[in-house]
Specification:
The chain has helices at residues 17-27, 38-58, 72-83, 98-108, 127-131, 156-165, 250-266, 268-286, 316-325, 339-345, 363-380; strands at residues 2-3, 66-69, 89-93, 113-117, 138-144, 169-173, 192-196, 208-212, 292-294, 306-311, 329-330, 332-334, 352-356. By secondary structure, it is α/β, with parallel strands linked by helices. The strands form three sheets. A seven-stranded mixed sheet has the order 2-8-7-6-5-3-4, sandwiched between helices. The protein has a four-stranded antiparallel sheet with strand order 9-10-13-12, with helices on one face. Helix 6 links the parallel strand 5 and strand 6 (169-173). Bound molecules: pyridoxal-5'-phosphate. The site of pyridoxal-5'-phosphate has 14 residues, from helix 3.
């Protein structure tokens, strides 16, 4: 199998991930932060260490400002529903995933005003198009760091500077960039950073998180047991307890910790360079495939390792089916949970065939994918 669906979830994971989970399962299976016995304390320590590693990766001063969630979707729901109130205005883009679009749709029915800035045909958002949408009641700007359809990288740092200067909360969806691109919450002036653990951070599914800048207060998505202040019916104010109720995914978080340590040891630059090399090879090869249409920037300095293509009017799922059944290549077709992005590209009906690469893909994988597309192109002619 050639796995080129890493934008959905990465596979395989670094070989350090499952031993860490196995160790946790076998030796640290207690409930962290609840009981005072040694195994519970050790489980709690594993969770704290993962927070520390993530804090190091994203340049976060206080690891306790990181909240663990099930995935990026839960983190974005907490950020958006916890922050925005009736009468608030929020600026977003036409390249967002449904994990932003759908919560905002719900909020728009609760009196939150939503402005979607239209991206260019490559999927880029222009800073001036965002700036021109500012209103008196604008509370926040929520934007993806990179499109999960075209890979287009957004001008996060510039937008962050502007948002901070205007007193807006800056919410960044790092689903396609965390673990590959440098993210510095201080430099980029990010107030709320949502990330999945299971994509390019190489942790297991069921992990993700939200960084909440000190001083930003959200309504929790849920209330419940935290193992702290148990006599009080009111949810504690302290972090992470305010937002982390119930038993956490200790085993998953142990795996995520091992994965983030692996990323820090390898270095972001090495990981990114490898993925850029693969993306470049793929983009160059696509130029020789008759009848293929490539969407997005087509420039590795401007896009994450995500490339969308189509053959004429052929349905994207048909092409994906052939890649899977005939060539044993896993990619993702359709709308990628980002209908606005596909409207922007003009592919809402057809969808696209999306290839997304990881640190564990090789040049041979890219060449096999190109050969398969070449053959599909001949068949479809
Ligand atoms: C840009 C973007 N945001 C958010 C998500 C949601 O991530 P998760 O599946 O971890 O909820 C995805 C997943 O594909 C994504 O690509």
């Amino acid at each position: 199998l050639i796995y080129l669906d890493n934008a959905a979830t990465s596979w395989p994971k670094p070989s350090v991930v499952w031993p860490a989970m196995d160790h946790c399962f076998h030796h640290l299976g207690a409930n962290p932060g609840r009981s005072g016995h040694q195994m519970a304390l050790d489980a709690g320590r594993i969770i704290y260490e993962t927070r520390e590693l993530l804090a190091k990766l994203f340049h976060i001063n206080n690891p306790l400002q990181i909240i663990f969630t099930l995935n990026a979707t839960e983190a974005l729901n907490l950020a958006l529903k916890g922050l925005l109130k009736p009468g608030d205005h929020v600026i977003t883009s036409s390249m967002e995933h449904n994990s932003v679009t759908r919560p905002l749709h719900v909020l728009s029915h609760r009196g939150v005003e939503v402005t979607k800035v239209k991206a260019s045909i490559e999927g880029f958002i222009k800073v001036e198009d965002v700036v021109s949408q500012l209103k008196e009641n604008t509370k926040a700007l929520v934007i993806t760091h990179a499109s999960n359809v075209t890979g287009a990288l957004m001008p996060i740092e510039e937008l962050g500077q502007w948002a901070r200067a205007k007193g807006l909360k800056f919410i960044v969806d790092a689903a396609q960039t965390a673990g590959v691109y440098e993210i510095d919450v201080e430099k980029m002036k990010i107030d709320l950073l949502a990330f999945p653990g299971h994509k390019s951070l190489y942790g297991p599914q069921g992990t993700g998180g939200l960084y909440i800048r000190e001083g930003v207060v959200l309504d929790p998505l849920k209330e419940g047991g935290t193992g702290s202040n148990s006599e009080d019916p009111v949810q504690p104010d302290v972090l992470p307890d305010r937002y982390e109720s119930g038993t956490p995914n200790t085993i998953g978080i142990a795996g995520l910790g091992a994965a983030v340590k692996y990323i820090l040891d390898e270095g972001l630059e090495k990981i990114r360079e490898h993925e850029e090399k693969l993306t470049k090879r793929f983009l160059q090869g696509l130029e020789f495939i008759p009848g293929i249409k490539v969407y997005g920037p087509r420039d590795v300095t401007k896009q994450a390792p995500v490339v969308s293509v189509n053959f004429g009017d052929h349905d994207s799922s048909e092409v994906g089916f052939i890649l899977d059944r005939v060539f044993n290549i896993a990619c993702r077709t359709g709308l990628h949970c980002a209908p606005d992005a596909h409207s922007t590209l003009g592919t809402l009906g057809q969808g696209t065939v999306r290839f997304s690469f990881s640190y564990f893909n090789t040049e041979q994988d890219i060449d096999k994918a190109l050969e398969s597309l070449q053959r599909i192109s001949q068949e479809l002619k």
